[in-house]
Every structure is written in C-alpha cells, then in structure tokens.
C-alpha cells in the first residue's frame, strides 16, 4: 500500500513515518508539496480543516500510485480564553468521503497571540521567539510551550493514527 503526504515539512514526514512503524503497517509513503488553498496562517478550525482536505485531495490527484493521501495543516483559533493552536488532518481516498481528525490544543502566550492577530505568521514568530530557525519543522510551538513533552511530530502522529484508524474501520466495515 502506498500512502501519500501533501507536504515536505519534516515534522509532518516524521509523524507519518513513525505511525507506519508504530502500527507495523505494510506501507510505503511518498510526499509532495501540496497547496493548502487557504491563507498561509489559518485562523479557524474551518479554514484549517479546509487546508488539510485541499492538501490531501490535491495529493491524491497527483499521485496515481497512492491508495490514500493525507493532508496535515496547522492553524490557530480564537477563543474566549485566548488564542489556541489548532491542527487538523484529512485523509482522502478515491470515491470515498474525506476523513478528518483534530490534534491537541494549547493556548499561545499573549505576546505570540498579539503578533498573529496583527497579521504575522506563527512560523516566523516562533523562530523569532526561540531565537532559532525552522521551529515548524522541529518541535513546533507545541513543543516549545510544553517544555518538549509533546512535540509537533508527536502531535501530528496522533492525528495520523486517528485518520488511519478511521480508514481501517471503514475498510473493515465495507468488506
Ligand atoms: O510545509 P507545510 O506543510 O506548509 O508546513 P508549514 O509548517 O509551513 O505550514 P502549516 O500549514 O502546517 O502551518 C501554517 C502556518 O503556521 C505555522 N505553524 C503552525 N504550527 C506551528 C508550530 O507548531 N510551530 C511553528 N509554526 C507553526 C507554520 O509555520 C505556517 O506559517
């Protein structure tokens, strides 16, 4: 079985690799850059979900050899308690309804939230905050603000498991 991923982001690649290994799946995976079709900093669950679904569907269209394609998208969501990280995954399969799964959420510190509300993107803001480069490919904001206990790859691997689990359940139900 071939699984396609609609991104070249290292944390997302690791999440899919780790999941295939953890689940002992007989699967190989390929990845291509896929457009999200939403703003570069999604600001709601709906926009983040749409980005994930667009990436998965684009990827499946481009990759004929793939049975399923996964799109993973990061965003933020405004709540009465502050601005929270939100992450979504979508799994596309030919002729079937797209499956969705959401990831863990944590509140962003107000100094980060204010910069996002003013129009900046989380990736560069996190690099600036951490005095590092490419945090979105490494531990991510979730890793930085959980003292490394849950990094971006771990958070996304949970989403990928939720997607593969729903896919397997659907496959089992229809056979
Ligand atoms: O290559 P792609 O797949 O586009 O990965 P990305 O990290 O650049 O893009 P996302 O669509 O996942 O995230 C949207 C924006 O939010 C940033 N972002 C999201 N989650 C983040 C996190 O946990 N840490 C740092 N930046 C994050 C990211 O860098 C983008 O600027």
Automatic annotation (TrEMBL):
InterPro entries, A to Z: ITPase-like_fam, NTPase/PRRC1, YjjX_NTPase
Any GO MF annotation of the entry: ITPase activity
Annotated ranges, domain Non-canonical purine NTP phosphatase/PRRC1: 6-161
GO BP: any one term: nucleotide metabolic process
Cofactor(s) needed for function: Mg(2+); Mn(2+)
One protein family per Pfam: NTPase_I-T
Coiled-coil regions listed: none
Catalytic activity: XTP + H2O = XDP + phosphate + H(+); ITP + H2O = IDP + phosphate + H(+)
EC number: 3.6.1.73
Keyword Membrane: no
UniProt-recorded name of the protein: inosine/xanthosine triphosphatase
């Amino acid at each position: 079985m071939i699984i396609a991923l609609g991104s070249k982001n290292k944390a997302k690649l690791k999440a899919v690799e780790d999941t295939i290994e953890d689940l002992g799946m007989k699967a190989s995976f390929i990845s291509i850059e896929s457009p999200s079709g939403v703003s570069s900093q999604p600001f709601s669950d709906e926009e983040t979900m749409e980005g994930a679904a667009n990436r998965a569907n684009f990827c499946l269209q481009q990759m004929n050899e793939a049975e399923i394609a996964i799109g993973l998208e990061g965003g933020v969501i405004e709540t009465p308690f502050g601005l929270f990280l939100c992450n979504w995954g979508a799994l596309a399969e030919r002729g079937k309804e797209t499956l969705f799964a959401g990831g863990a959420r944590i509140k962003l510190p107000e100094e980060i939230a204010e910069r996002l509300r003013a129009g900046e993107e989380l990736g560069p803001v996190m690099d600036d905050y951490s005095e590092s480069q490419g945090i979105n490919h490494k531990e991510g904001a979730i890793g930085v603000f959980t003292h490394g206990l849950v990094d971006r790859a771990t958070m996304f691997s949970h989403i990928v498991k939720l997607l593969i689990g729903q896919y397997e359940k659907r496959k089992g139900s229809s056979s």
